[in-house]
Amino acid sequence: MKLSNTFVEKDTMIEKINPLTKILAVFCFGLGTLLFPKLWLGFGLIICLFFIAYLGKLLKPFTRLMLGFGLPISLMLLFIQGFYGVNNKTVIADFGFAELGLEGVLYALKIVTTLLVFLGSFYLMNQTTETGKLVAALTNSGLPPKAGYLVLATLNVVPQMQRRMNVIQEAQEARGVEIKGRLVARIKAYLPLLGPVIMSSLTDAQERGMTLETRGFGIKGVKQTSYVQVKTTKIDKIINILLVLFLIFVILASIWMK
Amino acid sequence: MKQRSFLNRIKAQFTTKSLVLIPIAVGINLIGGTLCSALKLPLFLDMIGTIIIACLSGPWVAALCGFLTNVFLTLVANPVYFPYSVVSVLCGLVTGFMVKAGLFRNIWGAILTWLVCAFTNTVSASLITIFVYGGATGVNGSSLFTAALIATTKKIILSVLSTSMIENLVDKGIVFLIAYLLVQKIPKRFLSQYALGMNEDELEEDW
């Protein structure tokens, strides 16, 4: 599992939109699907998301994510809720060992579409936004700068620690520690890795803390400025209004349809 | 008045030193995950850092560390992990307060903390799996186990709970063992620079 920031600049329209607008979009789409009593809205939004992925030049990884996550969870939930859901009344098919209930199937599909809309829109937001910009936008709109630092620092520290772990692993292998073999042997091999990695990271944290304090990180009553500037354009305002209208419309429609 | 002192006490845990420690602890949490995928274990092992930071800086910092771990996983791995941040926060708090009560000084206290933490994790994670995801997330192999259990017992809640229980007891067992051994190895001088945590009483005597 390689963990690092996945943003790659592709110079598309979507990258230029304000991160906050994208967060609002994730929120509106996801909440809309969750509230709306019929399934077609979710399916429609998923198709829309595929189109947006195409615009953002992300169609291939997006499809891989949607299928890789969507198919297993759909099968699993259809099995669990369809056969054994609590609300099942109408039987649509009898498989011998259990009966497939309509309510359970609908419930499973509802969960899957909502999840896919949330997941897909979040994935697109995340892939088209530089994390630095996202944090800067959030800080501008009231997130404490220290919280912003935490998110960014985490994103930086983790790949660093993985590199450190590789170095220590190589050093231990040079000493003759066997990394491969049976499970017990592997566990034994990894224990002498963890100690040095964690201890050296802790001393690293101490250094970081001192460096930050000497540069005025803990000063109170000062407005911190950010190196990254985020602009709100006219297009952002229009998209924001459209998104809010969409959400209001969906809420009204759901109330009316009930 | 009491409320205010409570808030102040939480604030006192968030010194610059503790704040800097949080990303490192999140990194340690994630190394556990890397370890699992390297060893091909169907576990998470993503709490080692949270426990260590609970010993160093106190429950609320540990809770924030748990939350950030899930935020990080959401950003770089899979957004499915986001709802489970509630679980990480609760586990961080529970561990932190039990450490603060002095339970992490001997092995029996550590075992008690392990059991309580595994129980908290089981209940909260199961509730999220059932109510947010309808029974299975399909992210790891345990979902298949849940499905098999549901087929035999015909009860969704029971199956999810028992899968989660087994998974958590093993997972948290390993995590607490590693963390306990590590915390023993951290030098006393290093521990004492963090205002709140394991050796709060000793500190008060010293100062």
Descriptive overview:
Chain B: This is Energy-coupling factor transport system substrate-specific component. Chain B: The chain crosses the membrane at residues 20-39, 51-75, 81-99, 111-136. Chain B: It comes from Candidatus Enterococcus dunnyi. Chain B: One of its GO terms (molecular function) is transmembrane transporter activity. The complex is a heterodimer of chains A (258) and B (207). By secondary structure, chain A is an all-alpha fold. Chain A has helices at residues 13-16, 19-35, 40-55, 59-84, 102-127, 131-140, 145-174, 183-214, 234-257, and strands at 91-94, 99-101. Chain A contains nine helices and two strands, in the order H-H-H-H-E-E-H-H-H-H-H. In chain A, strands 1-2 form a two-stranded antiparallel sheet. In chain A, a hairpin with a 4-residue loop joins strand 1 and strand 2 (99-101). In chain A, helix 3 (40-55) runs parallel beside helix 5 and helix 4 packs antiparallel against helix 5. Chain A is flat, with a radius of gyration of 24 Å. The mean pLDDT of chain A is 83. With 207 residues, chain B is an all-alpha fold. Chain B has one domain (10-185): Arp2/3 complex 21 kDa subunit ARPC3 (Orthogonal Bundle), CATH 1.10.1760.20. Chain B contains ten helices and no strands. In chain B, helix 2 (16-39) crosses helix 4 and helix 3 (48-57) packs across helix 8. Mean pLDDT of chain B is 80; it is low at 197-207. Classes of the chains: A mainly alpha (258), B mainly alpha (207). The interface between A and B is large, with 64 and 55 residues.
